[in-house]
């Protein structure tokens, strides 16, 4: 008799796992049922800001495979608009609510794939029934924001609360749509994924786009009029707005797992081993934004909700469910984004993270250009390196600059992944031609500066 795999969550992690499992096990060997509470499967939430701005069409353009494709080509029973509300480990059953048809279904499983993603952080002050307040996590969230922006009366003013990379990307999208945009951030700088000194460069670029930045200003409430949000409240009084987007980060969507008795770690994510098996729970798997994972530099469990990890982890789980062998090696915190043409990349630990992990370290900032200084289009590029003392091992890197900046972080990520020291890095054979780099690449200049800083201290 065929075994039964139930997948909860039909996006990156869940559908990667389901597809891999199907590739290895035919329908006579493994029946696959997917429950997805939203309207879409296998979509790119990463593309939402570019759909909001109008740069890409949507939502179809952001969907890699729709439910019908999974049904016909992958022989999966995909139940859209079904929300799993209970996992019964004893009976090995899930209970799901049909959000449109009404009623409840129960399905038995041999293997369970938990891939529910993350939920936007929503502080108590944001609990409101007023229209015009949006979290941003799924394509449904993006669709709801688009609908609000297109409806009458047309919103003219927007406040983005929180300056993580999603808040920054949405602020850019809204200004490109012609709204007047204010980004309110409780911390010192927007773009909290990099250190404040690097974040200031991003803030400057945002101001250049016309985005008003109010940093160091916590939001304490919302005001509404006629069922619509009308202002964001701060210590400085109400800030009028027609739409509010919450960019306060996300937390693992692990409540359902916790209620079922699955182990939850210190970050709030489901605990898994390297094969994406939920710890101590045979036949139960989890992957993506709902799990915590190992940071290879700090050695600590972390919650790093990124699509790149969700896809890899889902694939690992699916290979294992399919009878193969695969492991997920952990993360080093590599991420890239942009504000208009200003690119931002980071990998490894920021200064605060290195401190929290107990490292003794130096950090240096090197200013250079993306191309040879004489080549048309040469623009500034700032590289920050963080290296352990006294051995010089690279712990983290950040880059802010114009074209060719963001993906340069990949060279640094490979160096960091392989435990290179800044001294080793000075000898790296990186590509050079005037349109792509100065003769000393910004990465090499930064590595040399870090070597100098370490030797000055140890003299
Ligand atoms: C605006 C934005 C920009 C981003 N940009 C990037 C980027 O540039 N690079 C990058 O690497 N990452 C980016 N990300 C993050 C990336 O999209 C996520 O890390 C990725 O989608 C996580 O995949 P997942 O499958 O774990 O979770 P999700 O994509 O959140 O999917 C989980 C699914 O589970 C469903 N679900 C949840 N609970 C239930 C339930 N009880 N029953 C049934 N279904 C349920 C949800 O509806 C959802 O569809 C971005 C995210 C956003 C929101």
Descriptive account of the structure:
The protein is of the alpha/beta class. It contains 12 helices and 25 strands. The longest helix has 17 residues. The site of flavin-adenine dinucleotide has 34 residues, from α1, β2, α2, β4 and α8.
Short characterization:
This protein is an alpha/beta fold and 459 residues long.
Q: In one word, what is the shape?
A: globular
Our Rg estimate from Cα atoms comes to 23 Å
Largest sheet: 5 strands, parallel
Straight-line N-to-C gap: 71 Å
What compounds sit in this structure?
flavin-adenine dinucleotide
Give the helices and strands, then pairings.
Layout: E1 3-8, H1 12-24, E2 30-36, H2 48-53, H3 67-74, E3 76-80, E4 82-88, E5 93-98, E6 104-108, E7 111-114, E8 118-120, E9 133-134, H4 139-150, E10 157-161, H5 165-176, E11 180-185, H6 196-209, E12 212-215, E13 219-225, E14 228-234, E15 237-240, E16 243-246, E17 250-252, H7 255-260, E18 284-286, E19 293-294, E20 301-302, H8 307-321, E21 335-339, E22 342-348, H9 351-356, E23 361-369, E24 380-388, E25 394-401, H10 409-417, H11 422-425, H12 442-458
Parallel strand pairs: 1-2, 1-7, 2-3, 7-18, 9-16, 10-11, 10-16, 11-12
Antiparallel strand pairs: 4-5, 5-6, 8-17, 13-14, 14-15, 19-20, 21-22, 22-25, 23-24, 24-25
Helix pairs in contact: 1-8
The chain binds flavin-adenine dinucleotide.
Flavin-adenine dinucleotide (FAD) is lined by residues 8-14, 35-38, 45-46, 48-49, 83-84, 115-118, 136-138, 166, 253, 256, 288-289, 305-308, 310.
